[in-house]
Design a protein that fits this description.
16% helix; 9 strands; 3-stranded antiparallel sheet; 6-stranded mixed sheet; Phosphatidylethanolamine-binding Protein; 170 residues; alpha+beta
């Protein structure tokens, strides 16, 4: 009986240690808040600072996909990076040009392997989503991979995901 109680207690402690919500946030915007032009095509077009916490304990790497679901034609991918080391807890402002060692960036919907900040096709507010995935492995892909390949690999290795959405209009 004592052994069973010990096992249950250990399980509860491990579960409590992972119980926090996996979250992503930014110091320059709130979820569903407006984004400063600095981080858009109307400004310096630099990546905003992002931080995350409470990643699952078995996280090996992260993938980050920034996209806009509001474009008239289709969903538009603005920034796709993966194999961010599992020890990473965020990306500094403008860090898209000097990512952590081992991180891979692929071409976005515009054919560029860069951070392409919000640049709405009209004057209405558009949503831009930063999806962060905690993965149990590095993705066996390189910078020539297509977004569909990356998303398939993410789904095979995803432990948990979180997101933050920002709005922007010209």
């Amino acid at each position: 009986m004592r052994k069973l109680i010990s096992i249950v207690l250990v399980f509860l402690l491990v579960t409590a240690a992972d119980a926090g919500d996996f979250t992503i946030k930014s110091s320059v915007f709130s979820d569903n808040g407006m984004l400063s032009p600095l981080y858009t095509c109307d400004g310096k077009n630099i990546s905003p600072p992002l931080s995350w916490s409470n990643a699952p304990s078995n996280t090996v790497s992260f993938a980050l996909v920034m996209y806009s679901p509001d474009w008239p034609e289709e969903m538009v991918d603005k920034w796709i990076i993966f194999n961010i080391p599992g020890s990473t807890t965020g990306l500094a402002e403008g860090q898209s040009t000097s990512l952590p060692d081992g991180t891979v960036m692929i071409k976005n919907s515009f054919g560029d392997a860069i951070y392409r900040g919000p640049c709405a096709p009209d004057s209405k507010p558009h949503h831009y989503v930063f999806m962060l995935y905690a993965l149990n492995a590095n993705l066996d892909l390189d910078d020539a991979a297509e977004i569909d390949e990356v998303m398939t690999a993410i789904k095979h290795h995803e432990i948990k995901e979180t997101k933050i959405t920002v709005l922007y209009k010209h």
